[in-house]
Amino acid sequence: MVKERTSKMYNKITLLGNAQDAGRPQFGCTDNCCEDARKDRSLARMPVSLGLHGNDFGIVEATRCIGDQLAMVGNPDISDIWLTHAHLGHIEGLGQFGRESINLKNVRFHCSDSVLNYVKNHSIWQKLFDRGNLSSAAFASDAVIPIEVPHRARDFDTHALFFRGTSNNLLFLPDHDTWGATLSSLGHDNPKAWFQSLDADIVLLDGTFWDDNELKNRVQTNVPHPPVSQSLELLGNRQDGDPRIVFVHLNHTNPLHYPDSAQYQQVSEMGWEVGTDGMEFPL
Ligand SMILES: [Zn+2]
Ligand SMILES: [Zn+2]
Ligand SMILES: [Zn+2]
Questions:
Q1: Cα 35 to Cα 10: distance, rounded to the nearest angstrom
Q2: pTM over 0.90
């Protein structure tokens, strides 16, 4: 893949949050995962989002923590928003672009047609378009390439985003249902073959759950994500030439929130990484 610079190209990405949509601590959870984060705010995590640094500043996903997330990178003016899909945790910060808050004008809004329709069909967000806070813009460009992936949604589709840079290419895949469905829809046998075909240097990968047991005691049904334990089986140990793989979008229950857990150690020993808020990736 040719890595050429265009004016829309970004030169650095900051991970502005590495938790699943509802963050950590999570409303109503009184288990240690969230009690720990209530007692020690340094353990709190914001929903996944990316800061895109270039000639302009862009953001991927608009979470309810968008204010704190922008403060992490010095409160830049936002010229572009990208969305992977429209599950609530990925879009609930959109209201912050309106009159009640910063009232920015003509922020370019990049998403698929079905996500755009879904957002505009809700009058709470339709106003942002009517008042010129947001204006829809092309989803794909030379520098940002959407890749459709299967992810439970009745009303809209879901995309991974692939960012092409001058020194690194980065794939952002925070949500998908199963490796089987994703790989078969893309025509690859295993994740590494897909990453290699993209010439990805860095992959920010769906790490929502560690394993299936994590959900057994919970009232959480219908939330398919490939567990990290399965991703590790498919990936094996990191070999020469493999991209960096960084697990993001961690559910509050995921033991990867604890660097001293056996699960975290296993990820590290295999050569892979767990995302932290503020991590930077040069492109
Ligand atoms: Zn999500
Ligand atoms: Zn919890
Ligand atoms: Zn989702």
A1: 38
A2: yes
CATH for 10-282? 3.60.15.10
Contact in structure between 135 and 97 (CB atoms under 8 Å): no
Q: Which ligand is nearest to the CA of 29?
A: 2
171-183 pLDDT per residue, tens: 999 999 999 999 9
Buried b / exposed e over 42-64, threshold 16 CB at 10 Å, is: ebbbbbbbbbbbbeebbbbbbbb
What CA–CA distance (Å, rounded) separates 204 from 233? 17
Distance from C-alpha of 138 to C-alpha of 136, rounded to nearest angstrom: 7
**Cα 273 to middle of ligand 2, angstroms:** 22
- Residue 59 makes CB contacts below 8 A (sequence gap 6+) with 16, 49, 50, 51, 52, 66, 69, 70, 78, 80, 81, 82
Mean predicted lDDT score pLDDT of the chain: 93
Tell me, in angstroms, the distance from the centre of ligand 1 to residue 91's CA. 10
Ligand nearest to the CA of 248: 1
